[in-house]
Amino acid sequence: MTNAIRRLLLLAFLWGWSFLFIKVAVEGLSPPTVACARVALGALVLLITLRATGRSLPRDRVLWRHFVIAAVFGNALPFTLLAWGEERITSALTSVLNASTPLFTAVIAALALKDRLTPPQAAGLLLGFAGVAVAAGLGAGDLADSSVTGSVAAVTAGLFYGVAFVYMRRHLTGIEPTVAAAGQLVVATLLLLPFAVATSATNGLDLTVRRVLAVGALGVFGTGVAYILNYRILRDLGATRASVVTYIIPVVAVAVGLIVLGEPFEWRLVGGGILIFGGLVLLRERQPVRVPVPSAPAALLVVVVVLLAVPLAACSGGGSRAACSAATAEPINPDLRHVFEGGAEPVYTTEPPTSGPHAPGARPKGVLTQPLSRPTQVGALEGGTVLLQYRDLSADEVRSLSDLVTDNVVVAPNASLPDRVVATAWLSKQTCSGVDATALRGFIRTHAGRGPGTDG
Question: Which end of the chain is more exposed for a tag (fewer CB within 10 A), N or C?
């Protein structure tokens, strides 16, 4: 194995793990803060590299204007969207959906460079976008509520990457790559800093050793070192051969998500990924912007790895399996009478209820040690409270769940739940096999403060 191939595999490993680092980091930091920390640490690595090699940033104002556009579309927007999306969907799904980047690159190049698509290339685009739909769960009955916005965020990040690649190809190819990357990340840091400060002041920071390490690894290795490796690989292998990394990344990310985070395995990720890769193979003759697609043998190798390695990882039992279903909407109970103290217990259409007869003005707060009556549950939901109810959790898991408590979030035991953790809001529910803080935080942000008794 040559040194260039070793570097390519290392780059795929780093970028594949980056989706896990984002997932962990966004549990305690806002998406703009995750993105800002990432580019700031990456810029630091690149600036140190420039200093060590006797190079410096350019002073040409025109170049810095190009850096601004590249930073907006290549870093600030997609990095924030990926973090925001991973609050709502798994890191595995995010990585597969983000593999749509070369598809968008091809479309934008065709529009910007007036380069016509051949019939096979057009078919490749249709096949690739069909793969995105399959991976996202379109038509599978699980693309609902927060998962919709998370999936759209991951795909939109791919769109912005496509814009950045075409723009950089046109305006920044004449600059030494490490210098261009350093300038781009410096600008991205300055652009994201105000949003990071504002959202951190509003939402707060919940830092743990695990999250700090995740942010550090994401910035230093997943951004700084990865940029240096990427440009070295481009120099050694050329754009076409180096682009094979795009197809190894989801394999790494899916396996890591399954094994380390215990994310659920979905065959639609494999099916959608194969369709995306197949579409990109049809685009491989596209020359003007070197759309990153593998040769047919490389694509076949990736498919085989996905089909063999991912199911094995799914069966390995290495993760905590604290997976959450997509949030589901539940129909309103037509019997909306109030329940007064001493009255008979009403009949509810769901367990736990998300609407129905209720005790008006119920306002439970904080972490409770006793179950809530069902009229009190619905009264709280009407007022915009999110209830995180649990059964059969360890003391550590209960503490992790309690960390999510705010003025609009209540934690309480409930022995009759259909799963170990159930989050309920007005007309919405999410079930979890354990404490998935990221998924639950996404549910809270989407539903807290919304109900007929609020302005939301």
Answer: N
